[in-house]
Amino acid sequence: METFTAILEFLTFWLVDQYWFPVFLIGSGIFFTIYLGFPQIKYFKHGWRILSGKYVKEDTKGETTPFQALSTALSGTVGTGNIGGVALAIFLGGPAAIFWMWITAFFGMTTKFVEVTLAHKYRETLPDGSISGGPMYYIENGLNMRWLAILFSICLLLMCLGTGNMPQISSIAVVMNDTFNIPKIVTGSVLAVLLWMVIIGGIKRIAQIASKLVPFMAFWYLVGSFAVIVSNYENIIPSLQSVFIHVFTPAAAVGGFLGASVAAALTRGVNRGLYSNEAGQGSAPIAHASSKTENPIEEGMVSILEPFIDTIVICTITGLVILSSGVWTEKFENRFEQSSMCYLDGTYSDSKTEDIKVLQKYILSCSGPQTYSGKEEVIDGKLANNGITLMHNRSVSENVIYNQEGEPFNGSVEITEGKLKTSGISITGDSLLLGADLTSKAFSRSLFGEFGQYIVAIGLLLFAFSTAIAWSYYGDRATVHLFGEGWILYYRVIYVAAFFTAAIIDTKIVWDIATVIGPIATVPNLLAILFLRKEIKKLDTEYVIRN
Fold this sequence. Notes:
alpha+beta
């Protein structure tokens, strides 16, 4: 497990923490925005008209209506990225991460327009009568680069498990356990059965459920969000100011939050923006390819609405909820996961300026304090040595208790290079929260009081489960492209098995997997649409001339 974690950390450093990926992603969106004359603005209004069903003809080729296609795509994007992902971006990059999510979304609207239009144009009808489309088809048929199409399909399969599947049930299981005391294995088992019952029906059943589920879950979540914002209205303006203040200056330490660099805000904001709206990732075009829309450009118009609804509306509201409530800087009782812990040699406090500078250096550049190694005594659940600092979730932990089988531990523990090596020990204490836990805590500071956490729990259940449903279809199409229709059943079994497994394993590892796989799959898709720029330009020009 340590080797696997080390690999994830290595990939995260080169694929997520570097400037090249956000520059490539946003740069592609900027290029197409200028190249096509700001389609996210000129087609925005007409996209809503098409969505209403006004231009749909029943005899048009396809399996879903534009609304069902958009709902399916939205069910794939409106998930833990909106609840846990935004919280994680703020946790890692500070308030300015929200700004970079906005930038990613605005230019991502154009990127989405391009990839969906191409997916609709190059879609294929399979022998069983179903529609199959997406980047693998416009790469293979539009560029005649089958090897790149295969590479994308492989990446997509991995992304289905690491992005659309595992983080979803992981977040659900954590929140349901924390909120309702439902064991993770129970949550995983029940939802795995329900997932199987839905995905076995293919895109038509998925689209039918998504078109009913998405509007309800969005309404549910927005009502709860506004209750938090209204309760903390005096903090709205300062929260918005903090978003812009730290765009080009490092976020200062506040409370338990030890600050964040400009680079962290940029890279994490872009990454979370991508994870949230999937613009450039190549997943949503697969859902849109099934739509009964005559002109590919018009389906592209519908897709423009996705990043707007998902990131600019819902993610912004989540960000304001977290910032205005103030919970992102506070420590709360927490169960410590091994992958989020590190023992430092020496005593440090986040209330001392000099210590903060040292800890910032450790967090932002992995330098400064030395990790601790040695054998230490634990008496009545408390570490006897006060010369060691335990970091958890990038914060100085407090009130730490060591437990074994539910009772305070007595004995010795072995620590090697900052990591606890003694097995069978569970640790609790006060530290910063991240992900869905942070959002849930923010919702408790609303007009609904502690009931707010139940709004998050139910909202997350709906969001994440709908995402897992949509992503099952994306992997379905990737499997068909790679292996043929006969392998679909095997894929679905693996998908449901991974869904169940992720409910009971380390949540940080799940999030790390999701963080790494996104960029890996996005690069081939962005290269493809750039190579096909003249094709999309031609389609856009012809549409403008005709209309």
